[in-house]
């Protein structure tokens, strides 16, 4: 092998080593970055900013767990509704609703499951929430309550 051929071969080997080193560094940075992201996202709070104003309500055939909710006008509220009834329930199939017509809110929880909605009341007042899926609907006094929106 000639001297030039050996030089070219040595230059190619050096170039390959540099490419491998760069590729290795890129892979290490990617792995560390993805690991850091996964670690932070696993332990970081996943609750929305409005979670401080989250109301958990359960509903069953005997009514809502909460009959009165007080909030401030202009402040977001998250309502998480959980149905305690099974899908085999004869009245409503285990679903329950939490609705306020005047505020355009309607949450329907599946049987033995939950659903939620976040909304911001824009006016003070007393609003009736209700379930109209089962249990006698709006006529049933146990399947309704009051959302009291207070001025600032």
How are the SSEs placed, and which strands pair?
Layout: H1 3-43, E1 54-60, E2 63-64, E3 68-72, E4 77-83, E5 96-100, E6 105-109, E7 114-119, E8 125-130, E9 144-150
CATH class category label of the largest domain: Mainly Beta
Category by helix and strand content: alpha/beta
> Which sequence of SSEs, written as H and E, runs from N to C?
HEEEEEEEEE
The average pLDDT is 85
Rg measurement, Å = 30 Å
Tell me the CATH topology of the largest domain.
Immunoglobulin-like
How would you name the CATH homologous superfamily of the largest domain? Cupredoxins -  blue copper proteins
Question: Strand sequence of the main sheet, in spatial order?
Answer: 2-1-4-7
Beta-strand residue fraction: 25-35%
Query: Given the structure, what is the number of helices?
Result: 1
Largest sheet: 4 strands, mixed
Report, as a whole number of angstroms, the end-to-end distance. Answer: 89 Å
From the spread of the alpha carbons, the general shape counts as elongated
Number of domain units: 2
Structural summary, described in words:
It is a single chain. This protein is an alpha/beta fold and 152 residues long. It is built from 1 helix and 9 strands, in the order αβββββββββ. β5 and β6 form a beta hairpin.
Short description:
27% of the residues lie in helices and 33% in strands. It is an alpha/beta fold and 152 residues long.
